[in-house]
């Protein structure tokens, strides 16, 4: 077949349904194009769920091809008229290509792939290498990871093989549709753990020693005797795990006084084994299966009981550790205020230390006697040391703290204001489960924080209020991951231009290279989005330009000689906003630009306000950071990313590079928010350490909520998601601190203690610096 030149071969070598048109018309020289046509037929069959071209004769096969692709001609297939069998057929003159209506359920990239496979001329038909470069293999499939159509995850159990029963119990009478055309089939839901004993029984093997599933009844096409034996083996495997855990529990010194799982005793296990032997002798296999199901359920309950024996005390211990840490942070913030708590701690310091020390000694003796594992012992002892630190009076450890040199105005926030902020923080916890709730949290906090700062019926007030209402609508839109809209992307580009050139002072401060580079990259973004949406390959020079701009966006800011914070902020907003647009697929750029504009307006309105609160500013940082993730829909990128964000940078699927671009897309809005807050708030520049201590306190409050929401049962997705929520909240402060220092480098901020006004040129001294230094 691969000889050069090709040798004559019979045209009947390929199955009729997958036979290329040149073979149907008598061509005897075969090339790889024949295989590519067959591959196109198979791909279409997989997409449709049925044969694409099921002709019952060569004439019928040709008619079906022409009905799908249109009639061939000499213009699109040079040499078509010279094929041996052309004169033997009267071909229909159907002129239209019907691939699009036939495959309406797939995206444009999938239809483009089919089009290059179903080319009449074998010389121009796509090769395997060209197919692998198709965007169909880069674009996310509809319903990726089972998130879309249920047809991707519902597999009829009857398709598993001969060992599966065709008549399976379905008490609820539930059904599902295996494809859009039906028919309805019974829906049998199995727990993930049940697949292990079921597959083991179908293969004739015992379940693995660490199996936690129970064999479902009625799913195997076997005799009752075999099913009873399989259930009994499954029960013995679970009982062995239960007995091993029970023995481990009884090794400790206090085993006699500790609670046990008394439902399944040694006598009950022996009684079950004897009963199964008697029932098998009497051939009462249905009763054997029922007894095995009951004992397996009890064994699983016992295994869970001993696995989670210390669950409640560990949760209590961890909660106590959290509360001790939060109490220490609160005392650190309120250290400049004499209170009854401080006086009591000062007087009772020795009693506190003796009490905690003696408790630790007693607990260590008990843990060693019981033989408690080291990891559990560590978490049980941890709260004592945290509370020992938290209850120490300031005359012992305060003056060694670097934060002791500052006066913190945290207590200017009243109790009801603290309660309101905590309520907003609790509401933000639920936004991890219902994204739209963050719109309510943002709207409430924005009105509470900024409403009184504006003059009534002023232009700034109505502009700010309109922005708050518009921004509150964005969480109602679909997640940006997997969603593409060229019109919204174009609107984002327009907003970036408008925001960059609206203020004349900022417009005049841009260097020519900044204006031209940002303008060209925004136009290139629109061009790349247009080419990608129409299935046209993006030229390599455009991709190289995107990579060069990625480097330019940051280096031009760092190398800029502009010293005014407001002008450096304008350049940061223009550069990073343009960079962010290259990674957007829909409304993200619009949202981030409007969010920074709203934050600018509200901070300018607060600049004349005498009352300041580090707690309120800390919550502002946290709320706007999460709002930039949830409102833009980027929060979904943490678990699954959209390869389309790299369309301006890559022509193929490179997961590690795409993940790096995803991180850039997640962090750029946070950098913009930090820059706006730092440049517009003198109070933040003076009290950044205390603000981040408050931020840590708020994050710990939210983290404590997620601690109680961590799951250890259910699907792996639910368990992993609950753990990731807790981890995200615990690392949020560290990540924001790193971003904050990055922002200071971009703004080129000089530490206050290093400023020497005598050495500064007069043009570098502006009122912000003078007032901050004076303060």
UniProtKB/TrEMBL annotation:
<feature type="transmembrane region" description="Helical">
    <location>
        <begin position="414"/>
        <end position="433"/>
    </location>
</feature>
<dbReference type="Pfam" id="PF00069">
    <property type="entry name" value="Pkinase"/>
</dbReference>
<comment type="pathway">
    <text>Glycolipid biosynthesis; glycosylphosphatidylinositol-anchor biosynthesis.</text>
</comment>
<keyword id="KW-0812">Transmembrane</keyword>
<dbReference type="GO" id="GO:0005789">
    <property type="term" value="C:endoplasmic reticulum membrane"/>
</dbReference>
<feature type="transmembrane region" description="Helical">
    <location>
        <begin position="461"/>
        <end position="481"/>
    </location>
</feature>
<dbReference type="InterPro" id="IPR007070">
    <property type="entry name" value="GPI_EtnP_transferase_1"/>
</dbReference>
<keyword id="KW-1133">Transmembrane helix</keyword>
<feature type="domain" description="Protein kinase">
    <location>
        <begin position="1"/>
        <end position="137"/>
    </location>
</feature>
<keyword id="KW-0256">Endoplasmic reticulum</keyword>
<dbReference type="Pfam" id="PF04987">
    <property type="entry name" value="PigN"/>
</dbReference>
<dbReference type="GO" id="GO:0051377">
    <property type="term" value="F:mannose-ethanolamine phosphotransferase activity"/>
</dbReference>
<dbReference type="InterPro" id="IPR000719">
    <property type="entry name" value="Prot_kinase_dom"/>
</dbReference>
<feature type="transmembrane region" description="Helical">
    <location>
        <begin position="538"/>
        <end position="559"/>
    </location>
</feature>
<feature type="transmembrane region" description="Helical">
    <location>
        <begin position="722"/>
        <end position="740"/>
    </location>
</feature>
<feature type="transmembrane region" description="Helical">
    <location>
        <begin position="515"/>
        <end position="532"/>
    </location>
</feature>
<feature type="transmembrane region" description="Helical">
    <location>
        <begin position="351"/>
        <end position="369"/>
    </location>
</feature>
<feature type="transmembrane region" description="Helical">
    <location>
        <begin position="691"/>
        <end position="710"/>
    </location>
</feature>
<feature type="transmembrane region" description="Helical">
    <location>
        <begin position="313"/>
        <end position="331"/>
    </location>
</feature>
<keyword id="KW-0808">Transferase</keyword>
<feature type="transmembrane region" description="Helical">
    <location>
        <begin position="656"/>
        <end position="679"/>
    </location>
</feature>
<feature type="transmembrane region" description="Helical">
    <location>
        <begin position="614"/>
        <end position="636"/>
    </location>
</feature>
<dbReference type="GO" id="GO:0004672">
    <property type="term" value="F:protein kinase activity"/>
</dbReference>
<keyword id="KW-0472">Membrane</keyword>
<dbReference type="InterPro" id="IPR017852">
    <property type="entry name" value="GPI_EtnP_transferase_1_C"/>
</dbReference>
<protein>
    <recommendedName>
        <fullName>GPI ethanolamine phosphate transferase 1</fullName>
        <ecNumber>2.-.-.-</ecNumber>
    </recommendedName>
</protein>
<comment type="similarity">
    <text>Belongs to the PIGG/PIGN/PIGO family. PIGN subfamily.</text>
</comment>
<dbReference type="InterPro" id="IPR011009">
    <property type="entry name" value="Kinase-like_dom_sf"/>
</dbReference>
<dbReference type="InterPro" id="IPR017850">
    <property type="entry name" value="Alkaline_phosphatase_core_sf"/>
</dbReference>
<keyword id="KW-0337">GPI-anchor biosynthesis</keyword>
<dbReference type="GO" id="GO:0006506">
    <property type="term" value="P:GPI anchor biosynthetic process"/>
</dbReference>
<feature type="transmembrane region" description="Helical">
    <location>
        <begin position="487"/>
        <end position="503"/>
    </location>
</feature>
<comment type="function">
    <text>Ethanolamine phosphate transferase involved in glycosylphosphatidylinositol-anchor biosynthesis. Transfers ethanolamine phosphate to the first alpha-1,4-linked mannose of the glycosylphosphatidylinositol precursor of GPI-anchor.</text>
</comment>
<dbReference type="GO" id="GO:0005524">
    <property type="term" value="F:ATP binding"/>
</dbReference>
